[in-house]
Amino acid sequence: MNFSRFVAICATISSFSTLVQAEPDNNIKFSLDTEAGYIDNFLFQARDEQDTAYYSLSSDLALSSKTQQSVFNFDAQLASHFFDKFENDDHTDFTIIPKYQFKFSQNQRLHMSALWLNSYVYRGSGLSLGEADSLSEGDENETVGARIGYEYGTSESQGKLNFDVIYNESEFTTRRASTSQLDTEILNIKSSFDYLLSGKTYLAFDIDYKTTEYPNDAIINRDSITGLVGVKWSTTMISELSVLVGYQQLAFEDSRLSNDNAFKWQFDYTWRPSDFTTMHIVSNRKFDESYRLISSYRLAETHQIDLEHAFTDYFNIFIALGVNNESFITPQMSQDEDYIFSTLRFNYLHSDRLSFQFSYNYKSLDANYGDVDYLYNKFGLSVKFEL
Known about the structure:
By secondary structure, this protein is mainly β.
C-alpha cells in the first residue's frame, strides 16, 4: 500500500484548512477503553469449538478546529487485542480519518476526507471461512482512500444536490502469494438529488457509478452503474423514512465473463416514540466486491433492526438483530451464506469521564455448501475513560 500517497492526501487537507481558517475554535478529546471477555468458538468451527478469554485496549483521539466557514476534524483510533489461548492472533487495528469542510455560503459546502484503515480478519471467517485449522494466524487488510464532495441546498431548500468522488485502494498484507489477486482499486462517483414535494417529503434520485480494477487478476475488472428513485420523509423529530428502489448493472471488461444485473433497494426508518427510546430499521440489497479467492463478485442483502432505550440519565440498553444473505458468484456456480447476528449492550455512565459496558454478541452461519456452518458467542465487560 502506498503510504506516501496517504500522507500527501492528509497534508493537502491540513494545508488547505490552515490557509482558510482564522481564529479557530479548537477542541480535543481523548478516551481509553479496556475490555475483557470470553469467546466460545474463536475459530468459527462447525464442531469441536475452541474457546478463549480475550483482552483489549483501545484509544480514540478526536481533534476539531472550527471557524465560521470551515471545520477540520482528525480522528485516530487504535485497538490492540490479546487472546489467552491464541497468541498468534494477537493484533492491533487502527483507523485514521482527517476531514475538512468549507462552507462557501449558506447553501454550498465542499468536503474532503482521507482514510487509512488496517483491520484483522479472524481465522475461520471471511477470507478463510472453514479453513481455520490450515492457518497459524488470521489475515490483515489495509485500505487507503480519499473523498471529495460538493453539497448544494439545505433542509429548507426546494432541492438538495450532492456529488462525491471516492477513491480507495485495498489489499490483504498477509499470504500475498494467494491474496494478491484480491487487491482492488476502486473509483466511485456518486450523485443524489432530493426535490421537495410538500412539507418535509422529498422525491429522491441517486446515481452511482463504480469502476473496480484488480491489478493482479484483471479478468474480473468491471464497471457498475446504479439508479435509484424513491421518497424521503421527515415530518417531525419522531419519525424519519427513506425508501429508494432501482436497478444495478455489472459490466465486465473481459468478454469471457457474463454481465449481470439485479434489483436494488435502500430502506432506512427511524422512530423516536419518546425522548428515551429510538428504533432504527435498515435494509439494502446490492452487488459488492468479493473477499473470497474463488468468486468474482457477490450479491449481498442486509436487514437490521436496532433499539435503544435510556432507563435513566446514567443507564441505557442497546439491542440489535440482523440478517445477512450473501451469494458469492463465479462463472460456474453460486455459493449462498446466511448470517444471523445480534448484539446486546448495557451501558452505565458513572460520570462525565467514566463509563462501564457489558456486551453480548451472537453470530451464526448457515451455508448451502461444505461443512462451514457455525455458532459464535462473545461476552465482554469494558471500562471507558474520557481524558
